[in-house]
Design goal:
- The protein is an alpha/beta fold and 348 residues long.
- It is built from nine helices and 15 strands.
- The strands form three sheets. Strands 1, 2, 3, 9, 10, 11, 12, 13 and 14 form a nine-stranded mixed β-sheet that branches. The protein has a four-stranded antiparallel β-sheet with strand order 6-5-4-8, with no helix packed on it.
- A hairpin with a 7-residue loop joins β5 and β6.
- α2 crosses α4.
- The longest helix has 18 residues.
- The chain is elongated and about 85 Å long.
């Protein structure tokens, strides 16, 4: 027995195996467990930057910790609540050595869905895309945006736009404030400009697609717009006559998004912009031609939502009260964009 022990002690001991000694396939499996979430990760759930600063100043709040003054509070990452599931993600892997950092970032940005919701602006989105860098932007495969009804402003006969705002949070006095003009790509002949309520579209949405196009070694990306229930841009067949502003949504924003997608990403990476939502199945079928006429392609794969569960369409359901998930894609735009006509209601 002593001789056996002596023989074993003379055998060379295996060296210590490091993480990088594992094969890439095994490392990718580990990254998958450590860095992916089955639920969308909240990239932004707060308020727009300027609104955050103004609201907190109004209530005499102090700037966020580690920030000496309000002017340094400039990035979306300074104000958001991460989704609960993302708190289990081991973000520290992205801060390791060069090899692990690159591999971990590829899994984190490429295998997760990042969602913007709450009172975000397109400026917040562009800042986030800039902050993560061109390499990580190229890894992105799924972005989602919870989309509310656009803000409204008043337009006069000359095309000047303004809105009524309170002079201070406690004041009863109001003033007219000039806002951004109609986007230059939305054409409107001078003789056709009329007074009414129009959408105030954030021009920063173009910057978002500029960043998506300026990405290194970019992969295909699904850019999903999630609409409010019973809302389809360009259609108003479900509007309540008493509150038309609740679901008023023109084709101006979808048309601009499609133009920016083609202009800034075509040939560089495939970006598929999808518009999804929930609507009464009966309304979707009855107004199918109207939906397609304004420029939408209704994609296949509609599913019936019933009893809190999603089921494939089947015979015997009552479509007059049943909701269905829909997915739309913008058709190719031919010719110049024409701005939508003002709405008849007032936003004041």
């Amino acid at each position: 027995m002593q001789e056996c022990d002596n023989a074993l002690s003379t055998l060379p001991r295996p060296g210590r195996i490091s993480f990088l000694d594992l094969s890439r396939e095994i490392r990718d499996i580990i990254y998958g467990f450590a860095l992916t979430s089955p639920l969308p990760i909240s990239a932004w759930t707060g308020e727009p930057l300027e609104l955050c600063r103004n609201n907190l100043r109004d209530c005499h709040a102090k700037p966020p910790r580690k920030l000496k003054n309000w002017t340094t509070w400039t990035t979306a990452g300074h104000y958001h609540e991460p989704s609960r599931d993302s708190r289990r993600i081991t973000h520290s892997l992205i801060r390791c050595n060069t090899v692990v950092s690159r591999e971990a970032a590829f899994t984190y940005y490429g295998k997760n869905t990042f969602r913007f919701w709450g009172l975000y602006s397109w400026e917040d989105v562009s800042i986030w895309l800039q902050d993560i860098g061109s390499v990580n932007r190229g890894y992105l495969t799924n972005l989602e945006f919870m989309l509310g009804i656009p803000k409204f402003v008043e337009q006069d006969e000359n095309g000047t736009r303004s809105r009524t705002v309170r002079m201070s949070p406690t004041s009863q006095r109001w003033r007219r404030e000039t806002v951004r003009e109609r986007h230059p790509l939305l054409y409107q002949a001078p003789e056709t400009i009329s007074r009414g309520t129009v959408e105030d579209i954030d021009h920063e949405v173009e910057t978002v697609f500029q960043f998506l196009g300026r990405a290194r070694n970019a992969t295909n990306l699904i850019f999903k717009m999630i609409l409010e229930e019973n809302t389809i841009p360009g259609t108003h067949f479900y509007s309540d006559p008493n509150t038309p502003e609740v679901s008023w949504f023109t084709m101006d924003l979808p048309n601009l998004v499609e133009v920016f997608r083609v202009k800034h990403t075509q040939g560089l990476r495939r970006v598929d912009v999808l518009w999804t939502g929930i609507k009464l199945c009966s309304a979707l079928k009855a107004h199918k031609d109207e939906i397609e006429k304004v420029g939408w392609e209704i994609l296949e794969g509609l599913e019936l939502v019933r009893d809190g569960k999603i089921k494939q369409m089947e015979s015997g359901y009552d479509e007059s009260i049943s909701l269905t998930n829909f997915t739309l894609r913008q058709k190719e735009i031919v010719g110049k964009l024409v701005a939508s006509e003002p709405a008849s209601f007032t936003c004041d």
